[in-house]
Amino acid sequence: MTRYIVRRLLQAIPAIFGIIVINFFVLHLAPGDAADVLAGEAGAATEAYMEQLRETFGLDQPLYVQLYEYVANIVELNLGYSFRHNMPVFDLIVDRLPATLWLMLSAISLAIGLGILLGVTSARFVNTTIDRVCSVLALLCYSTPVFWIGLMMIVLFSVKLGWLPSGGFETIGAEHAGIERLLDILEHTLMPALSLSLFYLAVYARLMRASMLEVYRLDFVTTAHAKGLSPTRVAFKHVLRNALLPVVTMAGLHLGALLGGAIVVEVVFSWPGIGRLAFDAILQRDLNLLLSVLVLSSVLVILANLAVDLIYAWLDPRIEIG
Amino acid sequence: MRRLTEFWRLYRRNLPAVFGLGFLAIVVVMAAVADILYPEGPWDLATRPFLWPGDRAQYPLGSDMLGRDVLAGIVHGSRVSLLIGIVATAVSFVIGIFVGAIAGYFRAWVDDALMRFTEIFQTIPPFMFLIVLVAIFKPSVATISLAIGIVSWPTVARLVRGEFIALRERDFVQAGTVIGMSNARIILTQILPNALPPVIVTSSVLVATAIINESALSFLGLGDPNLMSWGTMIGAGREVLRNAWYLTALPGIAILLTVLALNLAGDGLNDALNPRLKSG
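Structure tokens for the assembled complex are given below, as produced in the milestone run.
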């Protein structure tokens, strides 16, 4: 097991290095001086800031020295200073990260939970009207732009019905504590998490349906039916457990895409996470901040995938560890 | 011609797919005649602001905060969505087929190296990468299409690679090697035509994803500033969401229906081109 962990860790290093190099080249392929690109051209960049950028990233050196400096800086988590936020970039991102992780976690839980429910229902009533209704629902979720459904939810649930807050992470100035604060946060999380989850919910529902139908053909399911168990019990007790694996695998692969979706959702719901931070960076043309968000979130995705792999190896002894 | 009839015979058995294709035809016509229907363009200040849909027959979908005709915007916006959807998909096909074909045909270290490269591209959160590319290279139809292609080619590469690995062992490919065909010729004339059907099946989903990505970019203010796109309309409508939500709802419905039609058509393509894979 230890050898497996070490090997997977070593495999992650070239990937992280590759991402940093891709970033470096994107930065240098851009038209103009790299310091200009990093600082943005809103005219807000002072000579001192440009100087600091040149020094941090060694921009007056030959290209290979710059690449070396760039990699070294990022490995040391030295990402420069954001004058617009008046904070080191790394601290800024770490500060905003928990809100985004919470949003992603809520969304993926909703997607897996509701997706499984929809998929199992479809498979249980295969080729009936219920199956067709579930399929149409999944197809609609699959085709809806995430930011648009978020806005429509705000219109319905916040503006018209007044049931849910239209944005933010919690009620500002309410000074809730303990369970009250948790409920307040959950209330704020519901709409953003739901709109972010819809697309994945649809994917998992389709996958779950197909996977369930596969398992239904197996002998032990026939046995369960023959024992006289109710179809719903067979569906949830026997088939579901064996059909879950593909969904869990998919969910692991979706982390990166989910992070991308989080950007637009955070903008729609004024959610104080790194997506919103990235959006502010676009508006202020703070490209150093934007690139740093990209690098750190890519590394995060790699580490998360690594964690998923390890949990897998631990859960399922059939997976080759040697 | 016979293959086309056969294709259509299989395709039309999937009724929703036929509807999808029909709707897409309407969108294409809309994009084609946009300049004839609305020669003044989508930015023209046609009437008074905030006309609701149905208020005046001349402007069936109402007008926005500046008095621009919403229907004119949607008709013109279809051009941007289709254009970017198709060009971006073409870009990801070119890169993906190139990488996938070489990796799958030569195998060994070439395959290893190219697949590592592909994996790295796959781990970068695609939409975030897209934002960075467009922000750095300035938004225009060309940069947006190129950037969407750059973040979406890995799927194509993996698919093509898989097909190439399966096909390169087949007799007709071996025969090509025996009669002394060059590698390039075998790849292009022997394997590629046979590897294409599954790639064509993914094209509709790729176009749909590109359209959604473009609209999300425009919504964030990273669209081509000279063009009216559905995402731009949603972004502008957001400012007046509380009072005039139809300005956000209508272009969103246009995106939803177009993407839905593409997904339905994709199912039909799958039925027609991969008849063996069809499952319950």
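Strands of chain A lie at 81-82, 87-88. Chain A touches chain B through 53 residues (CB under 8 Å). Further analysis is deferred to the final report.
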